[in-house]
Amino acid sequence: MKRPSCFLEITVLSAEDLRLSKRSIKKNSFVTIRTTPQTFKSTCMDAVNGSYPIWDEKFELSLPDSVTYITVEVQCRSGAGVMTLIGAAKVPVSDFMNALMPVGYLHFLSYRLRDRDEERNGIINLSIKAKVPEGYVRPVLPILGGRFQAGNKSYGGVAIGIPVSCGSGNKF
């Protein structure tokens, strides 16, 4: 199913256990979020929380239809001004946009960061909410198991799950 072009509201919350050459970092870490190589946003540097930085910065980025993941990079600046990659994670779009989630649902997500050598190097904590264009109507899901359609509000609202029917043909 083709998803509409939309915007992402991404809040970079914090990170945990960031290291550089197996030593805890001291300061000056920041995050860059990329939806495409040309579309990115960066946080301010956290200069006080060391290996457990807190940013709590919110960004809005466009998400083209063709994008299947967004990239999150954590970097730090040395005293000499050199930027060094601490770790990166690829966040699949399917983790926060799929047919089973309500439009505008706020996802709190954590991802393992990997350094240049693909070694584990900390965790990044984010919240992501997809904002679809005005007038977008979500496609109706097919009837599952001959019972109800998800998204049919005449049954008390959206329900996530698959109806299960009894094998003997008895009605519930």
Automatic annotation (TrEMBL):
Residues 1-107 form the C2 domain. SUPFAM superfamilies: C2 domain (Calcium/lipid-binding domain, CaLB). One of its GO terms (biological process) is defense response. It comes from the Eukaryota. This is C2 domain-containing protein. InterPro entries: C2_dom, C2_domain_sf, C2_SRC2/BAP. It comes from Kingdonia uniflora. SMART domains: C2 (SM00239).
